[in-house]
Write a structure and sequence with these properties.
single chain; about 180 residues; mainly alpha; 2 domains; 7 helices; about 0% strand
Amino acid sequence: MLDRLGRSAPYAVLLGAAAYFYALAERFEFSAPGGRLGPDAWPKIVLGLLATVCLYEIGRSFLGRAGSEVSGLLQSFLEKAADDAESGGAAPRSFRRLLAGIGITVLYVALVDVLGFLLATALYLAAFMRVGRYRRYAVIAAASLAGAAALLFVFMRIVYVSLPPGVGPFGALSYAVLSLMGVK
C-alpha cells in the first residue's frame, strides 16, 4: 500500500495544484464577446486536462495489480532524471549558457513591446537555439520564424490574446503578417 501511495504522490500534488489554480481561474471577471472563448476559458481547459491525467494516473496506481509495475509519464521522467544524475549521463552543465539563457529571456521581455511579439519571439527562439549550441543556421532561421508565426497564430486566432505589435517599422511588419493570417 505504501508503494502505491508513493507512486501516486506526485500526481496527488499536481492534482491539488490544478484544483487551487482552477479555483483562482474561477474568479476571472470577463464576458466573452459573441460566441468566443474568453481568456478565462484556456486556463480552465488546461487545468481540467491536467486534473484528468492526474486522476487517471492515481487510479492506475491503486487499481493495478499488487506485483505489477505501474509507471506513468511523470514517474518515468523522474526515474530517468534520477538515473542520469546517478550515472553522470546527463548533458554537461554550463553556468555560462545558463546565464546566457537567463540574459536573453530578460532581453526578450524588455524588447517585446518595442520589436513586437513576432520579431522578438523569432529572435528569442534563434538566440536560444544558438545558446543551446545548435549550429545549423538555416534550420535555426526556419524554426524560429515558423515557431514565432505558429505562436502568433495560436495566440491571435485561437486563444484571442492581444499581443504587442511593436513600434514604428516593427509594428508595420507585425500588422502585415497579421493581415496575411487574416487577423484584424
